[in-house]
Structures are given as structure tokens and as C-alpha cells.
Amino acid sequence: MTAGEQLTCLVDQQPIALESSLQLSELDANLRNRIKRDYPQAKVTDYICGHHLLKYRLDRVDAMINADLKQTQKINHKLTRALQSDDYDVVDVNEILKNSLTFGQKVSDDVARFGGSWGFIFVFMFVLLGWMIVNGLHLFGVNFDNYPFILLNLVLSCVAAIQAPIIMMSQNRSADRDRMMAENDYHVNLKSEHELRLLHAKVDHLAQNQLPHTMEIERFQLEILGEIRQELAELREANQKTPPTR
């Protein structure tokens, strides 16, 4: 087929030039399928003019953009719904426990804090040694608990009996704090995992669909610019060949 030979456009059956048309076999498969969907009788050897081909390219670009927007909106909707469905509020465990302490719980915490310190050990050793020295050496005429210090053993037993449940009360407070922190961390991790999954889906959609579509749109733009440049060059050439009128 020689240049300048008249062909027929597939769409409007109007005569077109070979230079301003493309054969369906030269088009992208997706673009060719869109044309065949509108014109089932079309063959790969048929030609389409640049004007109608531009329309199909723009329709293809609009379809890709709309598909990407719908998918992005779908993912955003899932993310918003996931955030709204989780009615658990992340709380400051220490602040809540501090505001909910009763007087007895504060006393138990103070007793447990003092009972587990070096100050308590030094004070306790001083009292024990003082008790045994005073009663063993009968200093100042004091002799209320002779050796083997039975009264001292009774006092120590009473102190241990009272101190143990107080310390256990404080330990229960620590267990409540640990339980609340573990529940808080669980909900935080669950919410973070859900958000990360949706964000991964969004990134995957961006990498698998939007980026290829963007590259395809840029390719369409380059093809259109190339055709425009070719038409401009043909117009300049035609103007140069046309003799000036007087």
C-alpha cells in the first residue's frame, strides 16, 4: 500500500490517508479490544483515523483513572471503617491506677515499697540487735525478754503475719497493672496490624496498578505528542511547497 492512498476509517467509514491512520494490529491489545467491543465486525487489518483513535485513547485513560480511584476509595473506606469499628480507647494505665487508688491501697504500696528497701533492712537489724543487747546485758536495768527472746520471736511472727498480706495487696495491684497494660498492648497491636494490612494493600495497589497505569498514560501522551509533531511537520512541509499568492 503506497503513501497517499485513500483508506476508510473503521468508525465513520470516511476516507482517510495512510499517514493519518493506524491499523488495528498496530494498537495495544487493550485498546484494540475496546474498539472491537464497539465494532464487533472489525478486523485487525482495518484502519482507524487519528481523531477517533485519540477518543479511544482518552477513554482508555479515563477508565484506568476511574478504576484506580475506585480501588483507592475502597481501600480508604475499609481503613476508615476499621478505625471506627474499634471502640477501644488506648489509655494511660499508670494514670488510671493512680487516680483509682484507695487509702488502703496507697498504704499497702508504701509498706511494700519500704519493706523491700535497704532502709527497712538496716532499721530492722538495728532494732533486733538493740533488743538482744538490752535484754542480754540487762542495760539500764531493763530485763523484759530474757534469752532465748521468746517475746522477740512473737513480735517477729506478728510483724511477718501482718506484713505478708499487705505486700500481697501491693502485688495484686501490680498484677492489675500488668493485666491492664497487656490488654492495652494487645488492642494497640491489633489495631496497628489491621492498619498495616490495609496500608500494605494500598501500597500493593499503587505498585501493581497505579504505577503501570501511569506509565501507560505517559506512553499514550508520548504517542499523541508524536502524532501532533508529525502533523505539524506535514503542515510546515505543505506550507513550504505552496507558492505564495500575489
List the helices and strands and how they pair.
Layout: E1 6-8, E2 15-17, E3 21-23, H1 29-38, E4 47-49, H2 50-85, H3 93-99, H4 103-115, H5 118-137, H6 150-241
Antiparallel strand pairs: 1-2, 3-4
Distance between the termini: 38 Å
Mean of all residue-level pLDDT scores:
78
Strand tally = 4
Which consecutive residue ranges, at least 5 long each, have pLDDT under 50? none
Radius of gyration of CA atoms, rounded to a whole number: 44 Å
Structural class: mainly alpha
Report the major sheet: 2 strands, antiparallel
Q: Helical element count?
A: 6
Label the overall shape. Answer: rod-shaped
Order of helices and strands: EEEHEHHHHH
Order of the strands making up the biggest sheet: 1-2
What portion of residues belong to β-strands?
under 5%
* Helicity range: over 70%
Q: Describe it for me?
A:
- This protein has 246 residues and is mainly alpha-helical.
- The chain has six helices and four strands, in the order E-E-E-H-E-H-H-H-H-H.
- A hairpin with a 6-residue loop joins strand 1 (6-8) and strand 2 (15-17).
- Helix 4 (103-115) crosses helix 6 (150-241).
- The longest helix has 92 residues, at 150-241.
- The mean pLDDT is 78.
Using brief descriptors, characterize the structure shown.
two-stranded antiparallel ribbon; 246 residues; mainly alpha; 6 helices; two-stranded antiparallel sheet; 4 strands
